[in-house]
TrEMBL record:
Signal peptide: none annotated. Keywords: Methyltransferase, Transferase. Residues 158-294 form the Methyltransferase domain. GO terms for cellular component: cytoplasm. CDD domains: AdoMet_MTases. This is SAM dependent methyltransferase.
Length: 389
């Protein structure tokens, strides 16, 4: 390859060096096809522990990332043409070089038609899925939703719909956060096997094309170990997991989003508290089993209604989530609450979404204090964020 083309190739490769540094958690590898006459040769580059490994001409050499452009351009000098494919999650960059020209183009992972052959009654009719069968096969198989035959398992159709609807409900929030902060740091409280984080990870990086980093928190070593295994199998290097109580966790860097799915009773309050204490930009929680206020509240004016146990329990659920919303509003969050799934599937179906929007509203804090006194309650969420109250 002539000197002019090699010099231009060096410029493109220097840009790739920086990309490897910036996106090391998403880097998959580089494949280089080399042409000399009628013969073709291949070289491969992988990344491990911050070093590149070049497999070429029967040997493997370890390289500093900053050596990439020099080493590849030196190899290119001995050939007539080169095609280099840089792969990271969701994106391919292709460099084609010969004596006439050097061109670079990118090719994003394209979504294919979703859910062909999955028209079972439990599926949402005519739905344009966010997590599409085809592009998302790897993650859907890893969490047990997709079978080896490439189709959604019959017993997982409902779960698939729930996960996809979750993405639909947080899509606007994710796009807003990505536009503001670029790369997102996300904490999954009570993560379990982290199925939701794996799907969110896929959606943010592979679909929205934004960088993201996940930390899963859980007190169970069994589920944390399971999460690590899934992340390793998927090659999701942008995830880590910690065995810890949510109350004991303090973030080492800015948190953009805190999530919690079906955290039972006051565990939802612990997730909200973690977000507040760490000044998270947003949170999405789906509460479950709101028991605490049920055993505390009383309201004489409604005794003729709350004497019926089932009605008292349902009102306790409403009060619990309503108080959470009021406190978050008082702390400067813009809040909303929506049905996450149909109440026919589960009565624990509400999703609380909150985005940091302003400063503390002391009139709302006073409103909460009056409500607390009227009902005779002492919510855990207040104790967890007590400096504000």
């Amino acid at each position: 390859m002539n000197k002019k083309s090699v010099q231009k190739l060096v410029l493109f490769l220097t840009g790739l060096e920086q990309r490897v540094v910036d996106n090391s958690s998403f880097f998959k590898g580089i494949v280089i096809k080399l042409k000399s006459g009628t013969k073709q040769y291949e070289a491969n580059i992988t990344l491990k522990d911050g070093k590149l490994f070049l497999n070429y001409n029967g040997r493997t050499d370890r390289l500093e990332i900053s050596w990439l452009s020099a080493r590849v351009s030196k190899i290119a000098e001995s050939y007539e043409a080169l095609t280099l494919v840089y792969e990271e999650r969701g994106t391919s960059i292709i460099i084609e070089a010969d004596d006439k020209n050097v061109k670079m183009r990118s090719k994003d992972t394209k979504a294919t038609e979703a859910c062909k052959g999955h028209n079972e009654t439990a599926q949402i009719a005519n739905r344009d899925y966010f997590i599409k069968v085809g592009p998302a096969d790897d993650v859907l198989k890893a969490i047990g939703i997709l079978g080896e035959n490439g189709k959604i398992r019959n017993d997982m159709i409902r779960k698939y719909n729930q996960i996809d609807h979750y993405i639909e409900l947080v899509d606007d929030m994710l796009k807003t956060l990505c536009s503001k902060y670029g790369s997102l740091n996300i904490i999954d409280c009570g993560c379990g096997k982290s199925y939701l984080s794996f799907v969110l990870n896929y959606y943010i990086k592979d679909v929205l094309k934004k960088n993201c980093y996940f930390t899963g928190l859980d007190i169970s070593k069994i589920v944390i170990d399971a999460s690590y295994r899934i992340a390793e199998n998927l090659g999701y290097k942008n995830m880590n997991f910690r065995i810890t109580d949510i109350r004991d966790y303090t973030a080492e860097k800015d948190i953009h989003l805190v999530i919690s799915l079906h955290a039972c009773d006051t565990a939802t309050d612990e997730a909200i508290s973690l977000a507040v204490r760490n000044n998270a930009k947003a949170m999405v929680v789906v509460p479950c089993c709101q028991k605490e206020i049920l055993s505390q509240y009383s309201f004489d004016m409604l005794h003729s209604i709350t004497k019926h146990g089932v009605l008292k329990a349902r009102l306790a659920d409403i009060l619990t989530d309503g108080i959470r919303l009021l406190i978050l509003e008082a702390l400067g969050y813009k809040v909303s609450i929506v049905e996450y799934v149909s109440p026919l599937e589960t009565p624990k179906n509400l999703m609380i979404r909150a985005e940091k929007a302003g400063s503390i509203n002391y009139s709302l804090i006073n409103e909460y204090k009056k409500l607390k006194e009227t009902l005779g309650i002492h919510p855990t969420i207040e104790k967890l964020i007590s400096p504000y109250f």
